[in-house]
């Protein structure tokens, strides 16, 4: 078990190194002549006005929220699916009730129009 | 000291440094990004503890969902006043808070200091399939069937409540005005 | 054991002998073995992707009745190397307003998040980076670093379009993650295991033939995850400049591009492993070398589908894109999961779980019924929504700006509002 | 092998840092981040105790799962409240939410 995670840890280091190599090569090989105009924020040639932090819609929050709730339910559904062979029928029904309650939340969000983009 | 101990100290070190950054940075987005680093450090700790399932879920739930939700909310709630981009991060009770945190840590450290040293080491090598057992125990009536259903209800309530508070409550408020 | 029977094992044995003869500490031997393995596994994808970019450009060109790259090398196969050297030699412009640390980490993270998936991809019977017992979840978890890299890139660029693009992209990615994870849950349920290699091993009948609808959901959701047409709103050039990587140039931009291709390949390989039987094929037990061949043939088929769809379909609008996942794919995947779990449990209850023909037949029947019901419900919903759309009076064309006709002007204003 | 007390010290430190963040920060979202750190510290303890003391049982797992669920629910509702207050009062600073003070 720990051997598996040793491999993953080494893979994390290597996966971070692999893209660093070409970027480092580019830093050595490429020209570097910054000037003020070149380093301005790119907005198709317009000068940027005001702050970057524009106001966003609350919809972004709603999508992330529903995603979070579904994600957390996965903590229970994945072990439930793995242990499926040893489950009595009651356990299966409990899991289905669990999923059904989850679906309820989605239905609520849908009916109240929280999932509409505009 | 074995290599795994060095590795644990390294992990704990960068997790704690990132956590310090979370509570001290002025820019809240930087705080959120450092929170991701700290949460990843906790995931690594879980992997060292041979709880791979929780390491993976730490990343999936905390980094993949909670941190992103927080960054979204930072972007959503911001005054458009230029000079208040990065206000003073701490409130007036900063010193008191520091003292309280120090006291809590002192108390915890004292308790840990009186810990029975015989239970310090791992005795059994882990050949127990906790994942499968957890899945079975979760839905069996002599296990955690009631918490399992309650969790589902709690999450449903959180979803409904959050949607109501964030979206629908504001809608009805605007209608009243 | 000879080289041709199992070359990887043969070479690993040689390495092991070499390390032991050097009298190294056993921990050092383990670490070195793991480093070599991780290096091989991580570079496989990157090497393939260089040729894949050429292949995709060639295919896209054929779909559009062009030649595609055909100058550099035979059939233009060296085109990617030309592109690579161009990217390396390009100046890397970092905008002054950028937040430097997240700005530089984001492209690295976007590649690393994809490369890490290869650690659990089984190439053959025993050729796998590491057989993690939570492999499927690991694939999903690593993907969340990709989401994070998009958000970091958009925020650190300090550019309105980049931030807006990043927000849209993240909304799309997390929305499609939900049906994706539910579709992942179905092979896990059928195989009773989260290890990718165990899932491949359990596919005596490929899961695409047992649960075709789950395959469909997974495929559509992964199209959205990799940001390919028809879900390429991430970089809708005509709407938000270029999306979250507007401010990137040179090699860092190249990293985002390569990351996109690598992500496509990776998801094709994962699809092949989870639904198309992975390395399974005739004679693979005797000759493990055939495993990667089968795997990449199947992955190549999935990739071809992706390119085909890319060159056939237009981009869809953002509200439609979100409706597809939240109002169609997510409910469908949840209902499908419930139906499959129930069918499985009932078959087990009646002691028919080992009756393969009955099992597969019941599963396919359930899939077909649910797919038909879902399509019926979607079409009903669609027509109801269409009736609710308010129709405006047709806008009068080119009304002359006469002061004597205020009525016409006000109508045109209403129509445009 | 790592002694159990190392994990406990680590988690105590993390908990204290989180507590400091909760008590001292102005921004309501930063306060929620502090709460997340505290919950994570609790999780480290739970997993460490499970691994060292009751490794062949599932109680530890159920506790950890509950903490995950509580953390998710807390973030979901907490951020919704922050947003609701922001809509009404144009601030996300906990110090300025003082309507009930006098």
Explain what the structure shows.
The complex is a heterotetramer of chains A (118), B (177), C (417) and D (102). Chain A is mainly alpha-helical. Chain A has three helices and no strands. Chain A has helices at 2-29, 59-82, 89-111. Chain B contains six helices and no strands. Mean pLDDT of chain B is 81; it is low at 80-84. By secondary structure, chain D is mainly α. Helix content of chain D is 75%, strand content 0%. Chain D has helices at 4-24, 28-52, 59-89. In chain D, helix 1 (4-24) runs antiparallel to helix 2 (28-52) and helix 2 runs antiparallel to helix 3 (59-89). The radius of gyration of chain D is 17 Å and the shape is elongated. Chains in contact: A-B, A-C, A-D, B-C, B-D. At the B-D interface, helix 1, helix 2, helix 3, helix 4 and helix 5 of B face helix 1, helix 2 and helix 3 of D.
Concise structural overview:
The complex is a heterotetramer of chains A (118), B (177), C (417) and D (102). By secondary structure, chain C is mainly alpha-helical. Chain C has 14 helices and no strands.
Q: Assign the CATH class of the domain at 1-78 in chain B.
A: Mainly Alpha
Number of strands of chain C: 0
Mean pLDDT of chain B: 81
Radius of gyration of chain B: 22 Å
